[in-house]
Amino acid sequence: MSLWSDSILVKHGASSTKHLADPVPRQIPPTHKKIPSLFMLTVMLPLLIAAAAAAGALALIVATRLLREDAVASLRREIREVLTALVADDEDGDGESASPPPPSVLITGFRAHGKSSLVNTACRALAAEDGPLLLRAEASPPGGGTDGLRRLLRVNAVVAGADGDSAGAGESDAVELLDAPPLPEAFRLKREDVDAAISVGDPECVVFVLRCDAPTKERSAAIKCLPEISAAVRNKGLNLIVVLTFKKATRSIRQAEELLREVSFRARTDCVYFIENYTWSKNGPNLRHPPVIKNEFETHFTVLTIIRQCLEFIKLNRSQSKDKKRNGKQEKAPEPKPKNPRTETKQYRKIKEPSVRLFFNGSET
Fold it and tell me: In which residue ranges is the amino acid composition biased (Basic and acidic residues) (predicted)?
């Protein structure tokens, strides 16, 4: 029994020492569970890249839109600040209880060149309107319009508030746009016609409208009239701004640059702007409801820049005229009051009469 037990103990001890000497190795997970398959690489990776690109493009579009809206809102804010400053300066200078007149801008040009459409575009941009186009001035498609006489139209363009609402805006937050009757044709335009056109309505700044897509002969004749128009405007002490409408009709950037240089040279001004006005005819007919006009950043920003430049010119002109009035009052010295000659002769006679009497009395004695 001892031999059998000893053999069992020896076997048990050998097996135990074997377990202690050779520990059980850890199971390593297979590598195919960590490394993605070729299908996953070829399908999922392009999808992830496309999703990231779409998210980045969407974020860029949203950021660009916010920046554009902020730029337009900042221009409206500057216009309101200039209008408030003009009203404050007029009240301090005149000292009258009556409210000062709003700054007036005359918009003139030839027939069917986009004058009235520019007025409607400016009113829409200043009031921050959306939806259908509301007409303040009578506009017609190119080539249309009446041949009868047109009168001067005064339009008060109200500037929207900081929240984009024009309901709370007062009379001081408005710009008076004067839609002038069209000028005669460029072939028979005279200096007297220009003087008569810029004299009505008592404007403080002049905007001349010229279309880009006019026939070559008509456009060349209109451009040749720019020196005469510029001289007439400056002779009245006003500033001239040239607006080239139908911007999308230009065929290339080179053509637009050549037109810009020629107009700037003829008009002798750097204030030349390209714009595409808001009109009904561009959206096409809609039988179900009036067409909804989509606001464009380029049009809004350009027309607000034009109004801002006009207000800057008006501000400078008003300050200069006010300085001239002050200097004229200071230069005028108080004139001495003229003495009454009758009183002087009476005093002279009173002084002379006693001496004459003494002389005659002395001679008689």
Answer: 328-355
What is the SS3 assignment for 205?
A: coil
Residue type, 205: C
Cα–Cα nearest to 313, from 145, 125, 109, 86 = 86
Rounded to whole angstroms, what are the CA distances from 272 to 185, 262, 264, 358? 22, 11, 7, 91
Q: What are phi and psi of 183, to 5 degrees?
A: -75, 160
E-state strands within the chain: 104-109, 153-158, 174-179, 206-211, 240-245, 272-274
Question: What confidence tens digit (pLDDT) does each residue in 294-346 have?
Answer: 999 999 999 999 999 999 999 999 988 887 777 766 655 555 555 555 554 44
340: which residues sit within 8 A by CB, 6+ positions away? Answer: none
- Rounded CA-CA distance 310/246 in Å is 21
Cα–Cα dist 269/261, whole Å: 10
Q: Which residue has the tokens 């000062």?
A: 100
Between β-strands 153-158 and 174-179, what pairing exists: parallel, antiparallel or unpaired?
antiparallel
Among candidates 302, 283, 301, 300, which has minimal Cα distance to 292? 283
pLDDT digits 0-9 by tens, 108-127: 999 889 999 999 999 999 99
Separation CA 153–CA 171 (nearest Å): 18
C-alpha torsion 57→63→68→72, nearest 10: 160
